[in-house]
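cache lookup: miss for this entity combination. No prior model stored, computing from scratch. Input as submitted by user K.M.:
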Amino acid sequence: MAERLLAVQGLTKRFGGLTAVDDVSFEVERGEIVGLIGPNGAGKTTVFNLISRFFDPTKGAIEFEGKNLLRAAPHEIVGLGIARTFQNLGLFPYLSVRDNLLAGRHTQFRGSILGLALGMGREEERAAVTEVMAMLDAFGMGALAPMPASMLPYGSQKAVELVRALMAKPRLVLLDEPVAGMNATETQAMGQFIRRVRDERGVTVLLVEHDMSLVMEVCDRIVVLDFGRKIAEGTPHEIQTNPRVVEAYLGEEVDRAPV
Amino acid sequence: MLAQLIVSGLAAGSLYGIMALGLILIYKTTHILNFGQGDMAMFSTFIALLLFRNYGLPLPAALGAALVVGALLGIVIDRGLLRWAKNAPVTSLFIATLGVGMILQAIALWMGLIDSRPFPYVLRGPPVFIGDVVLRQHDLVVFGVALAVSLLLFAVFKFTKVGIAMRATSQNKRAAQLMGINVGRIGTWSWALGLGTGAIAGCLVAPIVFLDLSSMIFVMIKAIAAAVLGGFTSLPGAVVGGLLLGVIENLFSGYMPPAIAPLKTTFVFTLIILVLVFRPHGLLGERSVGGHG
Amino acid sequence: MKRIIFWTLVVALLALAPLVLRSYNLYLLNLAAVKVIAAVGLALLTGFTGQLSIGHAGFLAIGAYGTALLAQYFGIPFWVGIPLAGLLSGLAGFILLIPALRLSAIYLAIATLAFGTAVAEALPRWASVTGGYQGMRVPRANLFGLDVQNDVAMFYLALAMVVVLILMARNLVRSRVGRAFIAIRDKSAAAQACGVSLARYKALAFFVSALYAGLAGGLYAHVVGYISPAEFGLAKSIDLFIMIALGGMASLPGPVLGALFLTYLPHWLSGFRGLQSIIYGASLIGIVIFMPFGIWGFVRKWTAPDKVRAMPRPLRAVVEFVQGGASRG
Ligand SMILES: Nc1ncnc2c1ncn2[C@@H]1O[C@H](COP(=O)(O)OP(=O)(O)OP(=O)(O)O)[C@@H](O)[C@H]1O
Ligand SMILES: [Mg+2]
């Protein structure tokens, strides 16, 4: 039996009068790829932001590996083993790809700040660069290393952001719309990429995505939100045939028909 | 004593309030903190002084001219300069306004503003007594003008097309654009009104502190403080913030022991930092709604 | 390697300057060093970390008065007094941390303005101690009984401080600290998701920046030998800001260039009142409109055109941050 990694219990978030997330509960097991889907404004990103501790939930509990996440500050989340990407790109635009990845492993650096000022961090920095380059090469992106992140095409930025998330050696990554704005080939590649992340590195994935073909293809299990509520949960097949899900997406599909 | 301190505080506060109104008029629609406001007010006021002293214009006409110069300056700055910097981020435009201020200082210097110059009072006469509170006649003028400017701006924002468009623009630029409002023109209007108001403040402050290259900068700093107290986006907030600031300052220097009393600006600013920390949007400011991602 | 040789040569040549330069020129260089140190510190805060400060003269004042008072009343020699006063200034930097954590950029700028104004107002207060508005004479610098209060000795002190402090800034900027600073400036949410504590690194930025300003102030006290409150007003804070904006604030050469520019320009233009303001004013406007990367960015455009796009535009980052809530809708 697989082991429970993340448990979200009765999670609720209100912004003024608007309930963005409404009593949502779900679990993610180690080694799974779980999809979190729903129409625009369903509350998916808000769930991510709650897990990342950018907001305090109005109600509810979040546990990761048995630890209460709500005790952690936003910057401590990655140290606990959860890395993430952002819906509208979280790369630092003026840092090179290499430096972005180095920033991604910020928590792995040990040298004291005084030591760094005195120039004693060189050794550690060199080791880190080697590690970053190895990671880039592993995903065939070595050539991008010196480029400023903002100069990359959108698709590459999304991919680099995912690799950056991996630099922290997380056990869970939260991916917010990794293929938004990509064409079919890029989407395909990203799908394989996500699979590789799980298969080769054993990283569990929680995936928010509007591209249904990708979600259905890579996810083991899917949680569906609508107006902040969980309306369904199950295998891709179960979700595709769930009338409530179809209803929630009706009218939505018309204007966001996949390209 | 208390009543006297409060009333004089209100008089000083009215001046801060008028200056703050000018700042906020500009900030509301353009999101530029006009750091040259002090220099710009100094410039308009100086022109009034020149016209009055050197060219024999009657005082009311000279003051009117200051207002016009202020407004024109606003138009020139917006049309002639900020237009060019359309792509520059708003924060760096705040640096550009500082640059404009420096250039105006140099021009004023060349036009003869070398040392401190006395500036004529609009009304000068024996002080007025209300009970045992003493008021300079100038204070009455200040109260009157502050009230008039506030009411006028209120009316502009409430009833005129431009005012309504300015309100719409400050609330949501893009929506205003979609509604067919020419956001650029609104920006120009804001600059004209803002610097016009600044000129009024300048002409009221100058008789009290005399006019030199930097005498308005201190008023501007107080006005920024007043604007912060009021929330930086609210016109009534600016006036209330200014009045509050004037009174607090006066009470502080009136009641504190002489060793501490001169630290009134420090006290006021500490207060403001506290206000900011606990109410990041000021006392009367509204949280901007619906902007996030 | 080539670079190390180049810079070693530059420093060595500078070290020979007292052989050829007259005392007054050395004095100017010393003043330039003061500005370089303070500007580099401010660039770390504003250019790299995106935290606007227009009250930095307050920290200079703490460093200058701290050094002078320590020498005057406790007989502490300058080589202890300057670092001690710098440290004091650094600690004072934490005062701005709370506003920095709670406020958006414009309000933070106002809080720093408040800090600078408060210091400027407080300085003349204890007139019996600080000499009030008249200012105070700084006790002569003394090295183990040897009087070193002269332009040559101060030049070597200034040179040593500049070299050490720039190297330290460079080390920091090239480490995880520099990346954390830039991350906070450009995308604070993503920075946190990478594990960067905003509180910790903003605190560090304020501390280091105030420390540099304090050290610069201490050096200033001994270079000039006389300090008064008027030198640490709003105008000085704005000068510092102009230096980094002009030079290119998100780099280390930028503030150095800006500081040199603002030391020598007034000197060359001292005969023409007003012209200096015009040039400052026009260059500020020009920078905003035509050269958002500052002088250094302009230089790089010619010497390393491929790297120019990679250079950050801190002001844009600051503004996106400011506007986050205000006008994106
Ligand atoms: N910081 C916030 N303040 C106020 N309301 C917010 C905030 N963040 C999100 N919301 C609101 O919460 C609701 C859910 O937003 P959320 O971003 O989580 O949706 P989503 O499912 O990610 O949508 P999309 O598919 O468009 O990304 C929306 O109505 C949104 O406007
Ligand atoms: Mg979303």
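stored under new cache key. Chain C has 18 helices and four strands.
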